[in-house]
Design brief:
Layout: H1 2-18, H2 24-30, H3 50-53, E1 66-71, H4 89-92, E2 97-99, H5 114-126, E3 131-136, H6 146-163, E4 170-175, H7 178-181, H8 185-199, E5 211-212, E6 215-221, H9 225-231, E7 243-247, E8 269-272, H10 291-302, E9 309-312, E10 327-329, H11 351-366
Parallel strand pairs: 1-3, 1-9, 3-4, 4-6, 6-7, 8-9
Antiparallel strand pairs: 2-10, 5-6
Length: 375
């Protein structure tokens, strides 16, 4: 496929040159994309046929596909015994992965640490990720509000980061108190808190908060939550200020996650994830040496059109083992969840992040038409 493409481009370049046209574009088109050695866990090459290779590319895209990623905030002790009646989430939840830190070592962190926040944003910028979904699905003020406190710290720093001129990374939030209350009023109550604490602040505008269809995006997690909200006849003043989208555990097309066990393509949003295991009696989706993640991404790459949004689950949800950001496993991590890059069981803490970066790059270079904008 690459040989046929190069011959076609070379002929076109010669013809353009004979007509006095500039050849810069042809030279650019001839440049080979960066490639990596092919292993089981790396992004596969484009499988276009020779006919597809010489077909005219679609016009320059007017609306790019946005890449979003679920993001968790973590609480850690700064000094033994100084937890202010809170607990160290890394140890309380028996998390058996230690993530990469800004200094290159592996260990635990507190999500109020600006060095950590900046490090994460820099890596996401480099990977061409556009926004994060801050996971507050256990209720915004659960456990004394430590999750929301840290989510706000991340949101505030995003303003500093984006204002610095860096490639911007925006944020939005996911709520889920309704999974406990089974009352749609909980959605309105949590929407009011987010509107007041985020959207009304100087870090709440569209330079920092991710907007969809002209409003801040709010994701609501909970099986059946969408139906409950549609049937709710109470006040929706604050809920209506957001573009609300949904998440559940049922592989629902058009939802933003959460625990998918198979790839599902959708024109608005398609979810990709490396695996899932919350160790709470549910059937796990094991990583299988990266094959699970490859299968999800392949669904996106093989589709005729681009979805409007791709959601990666997740950046750093190590508790439920959906994370892709570098981390080391421990001796108590089950074999199916170890980050083995091949069947020789060579562990690689960086493999899923490297796969993520490679897949996003490959997807962006394919330049497929956007679903809904085709003629």
């Amino acid at each position: 496929m690459k040989k046929a493409l190069c011959v076609t481009i070379l002929i076109c370049a010669v013809l353009l040159s004979a007509c006095g046209a500039q050849t810069d574009a042809a030279t650019t088109a001839q440049a080979d994309p960066a490639t990596t050695a092919q292993t089981e866990t790396e992004a596969p090459t484009d499988k276009a046929t020779e006919t597809e290779a010489v077909t005219e590319l679609p016009p320059e895209e007017t609306e790019p596909t946005d890449i979003g990623i679920w993001y968790s905030t973590w609480y850690a002790y700064t000094e033994p015994g100084s937890d202010n009646n809170r607990y160290d989430t890394w140890h309380a939840w028996n998390i058996d992965f230690t993530p990469l830190l800004p200094d290159g070592t592996f260990g635990y962190y507190d999500s109020t640490d600006e060095n950590v926040i900046r490090f994460h944003l820099e890596k996401m910028s480099e990977a061409q990720i556009d926004f994060i979904i801050m996971d507050q699905t256990n209720n915004i003020d659960v456990d004394g509000g430590y999750i929301n406190e840290r989510s706000l710290a991340v949101a505030r720093y995003i303003k500093t980061y984006n204002d610095s001129g860096a490639r911007p990374v925006r944020y939005c939030s996911a709520i889920g108190g309704i999974q406990w209350s089974q009352d749609a009023k909980t959605i309105e109550d949590e929407a009011e808190k987010l509107w007041t604490r985020c959207c009304e602040q100087d870090f709440g505008g569209d330079k920092y908060h991710y907007y969809l269809d002209g409003k801040p995006l709010l994701i609501v997690y909970g099986d059946g939550a969408e139906q409950k909200w549609e049937q709710y006849e109470g006040d929706k003043t604050y809920g209506d200020k957001f573009t609300i989208r949904w998440a559940d555990n049922k592989n629902t097309p058009g939802y933003f996650g959460w625990a998918y066990n198979k790839p599902v393509w959708n024109g608005e949003v398609t979810v990709v994830m490396p695996g899932w295991h919350n160790r709470a009696g549910h059937t796990p989706v094991n990583r299988k040496y990266g094959e699970t993640y490859k299968k999800f991404w392949q669904k996106v790459l093989d589709a005729e059109y681009r979805p409007r949004i791709i959601i990666i689950n997740s950046f750093n949800e190590y508790a439920e083992r959906t994370a892709v950001f570098p981390a080391q496993s421990s001796d108590k991590t089950e074999t199916g969840d170890r980050w083995y890059k091949d069947r020789s069981k060579t562990e690689d803490p960086y493999m899923y992040w490297e796969m993520t970066v490679a897949y996003i790059k490959q997807f962006k270079e394919m330049r497929k038409p956007l679903y809904g904008e085709q003629e």
